[in-house]
Target: Alkanesulfonate monooxygenase
Amino acid sequence: MSITQKPIDFLWFIPTSGDGSYIGASDLNRAPDNRYLREIAVAVDRLGYSGVLLPTGVSCEESFVTAASLAPFTERLKFLVAIRPGTASPAYYARLASTLDRITEGRLLLNIVVGGAPAELAGDGIFLPHDERYDHAEEFFQVFEDLLATGKADLDGKHIKAKEARLGFPSIQQPRPPLYFGGSSDAGIEFSTGRADKYLTWGEPPEQVAEKVARVRKSAAAKGRDVSFGIRLHFIVRETDEEAWEAADRLISKLDDETIAKAQAHFATASDSVGQQRMAALHGGRRDKLEVSPNLWAGIGLVRSGAGTALVGSPKTVAARLREYQEIGIETVIGSGYPHLEEAYRVAELLFPELGITTLPQRTGFGSEFSQRTVFSGGGHQTLRAVAAS
Ligand SMILES: Cc1cc2nc3c(=O)[nH]c(=O)nc-3n(C[C@H](O)[C@H](O)[C@H](O)COP(=O)(O)O)c2cc1C
Model:
């Protein structure tokens, strides 16, 4: 098997801060109602996605609780749950993680996100400057991992103190559920290569992703560790390239320049995240230069922080772009699209066949006359009645 035919591990996103058909506009919005999130989880479980990412932050529904609410309605889906050190103690998070891993029968993945908005972090009682947040995270995960692996932890650290911490019930996955990490600063990469199993990047152009992959590999090798890679991207896939670009334009068609300027100014002052700075630099707040690399469109980043780029095109085009990322070393893709339910279907129905990802088998009835193809291509009702009468 050549490297470009390797399977892609494809996850989807649960929009716990809301969803909609247009970004930066107030119409056709959807609240993150738990029943709507459940619809998405049930759909993507059936469509062949391997997991879902649940983010964390003040604008999101809480990630662990939401994952626990969705898990019973799914069979195969893994839950990549964001964990932000400092929002609770490591011992408490170890209990949350081991319970959720048992509830999901070993389907928990954890995404370590230290957070990049000092004012938001202050609301959670975290007042550390950027690099020190990673020193704090290092101590936090020492206790967290010790507890999951052995049921015991003790640490008299600079940031974390835990005295005879105990965990009553172990997680199913041992020594712990897999740890993912998202962050682009030197301090973040240094921290992650000592702790995380998978390094995640937002959807930067392939050359920039390659540069980060090289940095992460070098840092991991120096510690004798092996890290795999994933990318977080939006998708706008349609039957033709033209239709996909039209859909991209439509997505930001109700977005005005004032809203863009406000959002960009806010990100510039409210965030100290290097990853966010790299994403903002791709488009510079300008809507006339949004294709920042072939088929990589930065329109979403005009008003959304974090993941701000989409792969746009026909199934063949988008699959070819994903293969380019794969050649750099990306094995995991965390996709999304607006609205997340409909776009989960589009990606699965249009793109998955190009990637060799199989959805759950569809029921087609007793004979070929009843197959979906016959029903939809042959006039439905009449065809069925004719068959029934024969
Ligand atoms: C795939 C991915 C997912 C992320 N999810 C979150 C999240 O849910 N909440 C959050 O506060 N930050 C999230 N982040 C952002 C970072 O984890 C972190 O908050 C910050 O941007 C890292 O800063 P740095 O790039 O300066 O190291 C995510 C980053 C990536 C790459």
About this structure: The pocket of flavin mononucleotide is lined by residues 55-57, 82, 111, 113-116, 182-185, 188, 200-202, 232, 273-276, 306 (CB under 6 Å). Residues 9-359 form a domain with the TIM Barrel fold (CATH 3.20.20.30). Confidence is low (pLDDT under 50) at residues 377-390.
